[in-house]
C-alpha cells in the first residue's frame, strides 16, 4: 500500500480529522529521519496503541546550535519512505522549516525541572528547541498518543513534564532503547563513526552497565561515577557527563534510595554519543 507523504499543514489536518471522525485513535512518532530499527520499533509500538500512525520527519533547526551538525545531519526522505514500507505507518509528515517557523516567528518555551543539567550543560539551546517543535507537532497532528525513545531519556522526561504542565491532551509513551548486538544504542549519528570509533563505541554502554551494578550494590555514587569516567577516558572518549539521577524527576541523588537512572554523553572524535540505563533494584 502506498503511504501518503504529507508536507502541507491543511492536508495533515484534513487527513487526521477524517480518521478522527471515523473514531480512529492516532499515534504520532516524531523523528528527524535517517530512520533505523530504533525508529521502526517506535512505529511498531505505535501501531499497537492506535489505528493510525503518523511518522513525522523534520530536522528541527531550533534544537541545533550554530556549532552543531544541522548542516550535515543525514537527510534522505526516499530512504526513510522505503524503510517505513510494510510497517504500521499511515502517513509520513515532512513539513519544511519555512512552514514550521514562518516569518517573524518569535515564541520560546522556557523549561526547568528535568531539563536542567545533563544534555543542557553542553546543549543549552536543545530542549527549548525540542519543546517548541514537539508542541507544534502535537497541535498540528492532534494525536492521542505520542511515542519517544528511552535512548533520549532526558528528552522523554522533559516532554512528559511539559505535556503534564501545559495540559496537552496527549499521552506520552516511552519505548526501550534498541541496541546493536554489542550493546551500542542505535542512533542516526552512528553513521559519523569511523571503523575504529565504531569498535570502541559499545564501551559507553559497558561503562554504564558497570556503573549501574556498582550503584545497585549500594557503593558510594560519587566514587562509582569517577571510576566510570576514568574507564571512558581510558577507552578514548571525551566525556561530557556521567551522572546518576532520580529515574523520574532526574534530580541529583546521593544514595540508592529510589529508582535511579545512569546517564552519560561522550564524544568519540567528533561524534557525540549518549546512552542511559536503569539501575537494577538492590
Ligand atoms: N536506539 C533507539 N531506541 C529507541 N528509540 C530511539 C532509538 N534511537 C532513536 N530513538 C527515538 O526515535 C525518536 C527520533 O529520534 P531521532 O530521529 O533523533 O533519532 P536518533 O537516532 O536519536 O538520532 P540522533 O543520532 O540525532 O540522536 C526519538 O524519540 C528517539 O529517542
Ligand atoms: C523529538 C524530536 C523529533 C524533535 O525534533 C527530536 O529531538 C528527536 O528526533 O529525538
Ligand atoms: N535524538 C535527539 C535529537 C538530537 O540529539 O538532536
TrEMBL record:
Q: Which reaction does this enzyme catalyse, per its entry?
A: (R)-pantoate + beta-alanine + ATP = (R)-pantothenate + AMP + diphosphate + H(+)
Give the family, as the similarity comment puts it.
Belongs to the pantothenate synthetase family.
Q: Which GO terms describe its molecular function?
A: ATP binding; pantoate-beta-alanine ligase activity
State where it is primarily located.
cytoplasm
Its job: Catalyzes the condensation of pantoate with beta-alanine in an ATP-dependent reaction via a pantoyl-adenylate intermediate.
Task: Supply the Gene3D superfamilies for this chain.
Answer: HUPs, Pantoate-beta-alanine ligase, C-terminal domain
Active-site residues (renumbered)? 39 (proton donor)
Name one cellular component (GO) term: cytosol
Q: What species was this sequence derived from?
A: Agaricicola taiwanensis
Protein name in UniProt: Pantothenate synthetase
Q: What else is known?
A: The reaction proceeds by a bi uni uni bi ping pong mechanism.
Q: Which UniProt keywords apply?
A: ATP-binding, Cytoplasm, Ligase, Nucleotide-binding, Pantothenate biosynthesis
Pathway(s) this gene product operates in, as recorded in its UniProt entry = Cofactor biosynthesis; (R)-pantothenate biosynthesis; (R)-pantothenate from (R)-pantoate and beta-alanine: step 1/1
- Keyword Zinc-finger applies: no
Give residues annotated as binding beta-alanine. 63
Compartments reported by the entry: Cytoplasm
Q: Enumerate the Gene Ontology biological process terms.
A: pantothenate biosynthetic process
Keyword Acetylation present in the record's keywords: the answer is no
Residues binding ATP? 32-39, 149-152, 186-189
Q: Where does (R)-pantoate bind?
A: 63, 155
Provide the assembly information.
Answer: Homodimer.
Q: Report the EC code(s) recorded for this entry.
A: 6.3.2.1
Amino acid at each position: 500500500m502506498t503511504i501518503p507523504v504529507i508536507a502541507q499543514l491543511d492536508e495533515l489536518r484534513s487527513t487526521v480529522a477524517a480518521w478522527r471522525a471515523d473514531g480512529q485513535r492516532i499515534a504520532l512518532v516524531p523523528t528527524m529521519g535517517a530512520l533505523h530499527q530504533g525508529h521502526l520499533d517506535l512505529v511498531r509500538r505505535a501501531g499497537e496503541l492506535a489505528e493510525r500512525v503518523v511518522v513525522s520527519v523534520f530536522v528541527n533547526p531550533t534544537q541545533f546550535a550554530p556549532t552543531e551538525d544541522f548542516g550535515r545531519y543525514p537527510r534522505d526522505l526516499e530512504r526513510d519512505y522505503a524503510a517505513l514500507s510494510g510497517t504500521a505507518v499511515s502517513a509520513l509528515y515532512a513539513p519544511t522549516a519555512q512552514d514550521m517557523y514562518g516569518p517573524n516567528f518569535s515564541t520560546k518555551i522556557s523549561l526547568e525541572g528535568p531539563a536542567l543539567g545533563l544534555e543542557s550543560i553542553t546543549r543549552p539551546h536543545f530542549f527549548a528547541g525540542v519543546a517548541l517543535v514537539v508542541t507544534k507537532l502535537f497541535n498540528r497532528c492532534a494525536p492521542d498518543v505520542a511515542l519517544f525513545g528511552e535512548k533520549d531519556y532526558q528528552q522523554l522526561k522533559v516532554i512528559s513534564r511539559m505535556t503534564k504542565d501545559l495540559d496537552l491532551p496527549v499521552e506520552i509513551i516511552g519505548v526501550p532503547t534498541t541496541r546493536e548486538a554489542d550493546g551500542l544504542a542505535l542512533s542516526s549519528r552512528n553513521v559519523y563513526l569511523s571503523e575504529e570509533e565504531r569498535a570502541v563505541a559499545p564501551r559507553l554502554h559497558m561503562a554504564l552497565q558497570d556503573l549501574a551494578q556498582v550503584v545497585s550494590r549500594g557503593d558510594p555514587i560519587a566514587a562509582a561515577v569517577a571510576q566510570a569516567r576514568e574507564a571512558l577516558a581510558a577507552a578514548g572518549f571525551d566525556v561530557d557527563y556521567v551522572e546518576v539521577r532520580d529515574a523520574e524527576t532526574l534530580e541529583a541523588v546521593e544514595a540508592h534510595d529510589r529508582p535511579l537512572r545512569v546517564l552519560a554523553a561522550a564524544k568519540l572524535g567528533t561524534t557525540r554519543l549518549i546512552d542511559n540505563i536503569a539501575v537494577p533494584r538492590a
